[in-house]
Amino acid sequence: MNTKQLKSAQGRETRQRDLSPRKIVAELDRHVVGQAKAKRAVAVALRDRFRRQLLPPAVAREITPKNILMIGPTGVGKTEIARRIARLVEAPFVKVEASKFTEVGYVGRDVDSIARDLAEAAIRLVKEERRERVMDRAASAAEERLVEHLMAATATDASGHAAFAEGRERIRRDLRDGKYETREIEIEVTDDRTPQISVMTPQGVEEMGIDIPGMLPNLFGGPKKKKVRMTVADARALLLEREADALTDEATVPQEALRRAEETGIVFLDEIDKIAGREGARGGPDVSREGVQRDLLPLVEGTTVKTKYGLIKTDHVLFIAAGAFHVARPSDLIPELQGRFPIRVELDALTEADFVRILTEPEHSLPKQAQALLGTEGIDLEFAEEGILEIARAAAEVNGNLENIGARRLHTILERVLDEISFAGPDAAGARITIDKGYVERGLSGLVRNRDLSRFVL
User: Fold this and answer.
1) How far apart are the first and last CA of the chain?
2) Element (H, E) at 291
3) In principle, which of 118, 321, 416, 445 could form an S-S bond with 272, CB 3.0–4.6 Å?
4) Model confidence over 321-355: pLDDT tens digits?
5) Residue 203's pLDDT is what?
6) Nearest to 302 by CA among 343, 262, 347, 242
């Protein structure tokens, strides 16, 4: 690990040291309403992972993660809690639906692909972090390249010799002022795409890129290069990416990514209730649900999976499983798998009061998002308190009459209410719209109470 990587790792450790369980819950409260028990459970699990990293290796090896089973209806925040904690601790994160997997021997995805997806997520995360660290230097280098291209594109005299009418510093100053954004320049680009083919491996069907020109450079003459004309604005993005790649040590990315995936990776197993059930308990054409559970077991217990970047161990990956368990029960899971999720948290169904909080408390609530979107068209949108209350009441009523989809119902209701003004768009520039109770009622126009109609519209 070089000096920059060491400083980055130390920075992450400092941030995690400051994240006490209480602070983690407070951070989750900014985005997710309620569900205090689930927030406390994931906060403690995250803190235990940090505590484990401070122990001697001999002790740390023996401590397994406290996997969590979240039980609750759809739309109450299970996925959002898992996603937010992954962002909070800068951990590789993958969300998978358990119902997509099949028992070994059947056509479909096998559970080992979860570890491979986690490795891919870690690779992307590490690459993005390293690019951010060199972005300032990459931006300066890209600017120099643009200045050189613009100088070459300036007027030349009759004999064809470059007559640099504009000095280098003047071009740089005008470039920073945005005067050249629409000017076209000619730059050389490399076609480094590799063909993707599907290969049947012992782990299942995999998409693989075969870099034949890279393996046989003398035969193919290296990567293809061509000159293209594009605006300065487009060229800047291309050159910035090229310079960032040049400044990044790509050779050590897989090593760090696999280590991050093993030590801090988080896997969110959604719809685990869909594979709950004992062999022979139900008939039908379904692929063995118990077989999928038994295939998941070694992954959750800890195993080694081969990826194209190397071997990844899942011994200390945190698994968070979630399901509504309307039909099945957690006890329908095989005992071995139940034992691997020692922390069980029941999430509460959302009430009308919760909907009001969801519309008002989060940092980026749905009304604030709508205000920002329509604000780009010059529309001043304001939500009155009575309008918020009516939207929450309508969402709760529809959830009660139809399928309860939790907070997702708010998206449907709000889109229906704002349909007219969203369609007007720039034609309504300068308008000031207040979303009060009457506006909401007109927007829904009886759909909430008409069960037959709301079944298809809301």
Assistant:
1) 54
2) helix 289-301
3) 321
4) 999 888 888 888 889 999 999 999 999 888 999 99
5) 45
6) 262
Question: What is the distance between the alpha carbons of residues 115 and 264, in angstroms, rounded to a whole number?
Answer: 13
- Structural domains present in the chain: 3-127+255-346 (3.40.50.300), 135-247 (no CATH), 352-452 (1.10.8.60)
- What is the number of residues in the chain? 458
Chain position carrying tokens 């910035």: 240
Q: Is beta strand 318-323 parallel, antiparallel or unpaired with respect to 266-270? A: parallel
CA angle 12, 14, 18 (to 5 degrees): 115
pLDDT at 454: 56
Residue whose tokens read 């869909």: 274
Token pair 């069960």 in the structure block, residue: 451
Which has the minimum average pLDDT: 177-186, 209-218, 226-235, 282-291?
Answer: 209-218
Supply 258's token pair: 């696999």
Percent of the chain at pLDDT exceeding 90: 30
Q: What pTM, to 2 d.p., does this model score?
A: 0.76
Is the backbone of residue 96 left (phi > 0), alpha (psi -120 to 50) or beta?
A: beta
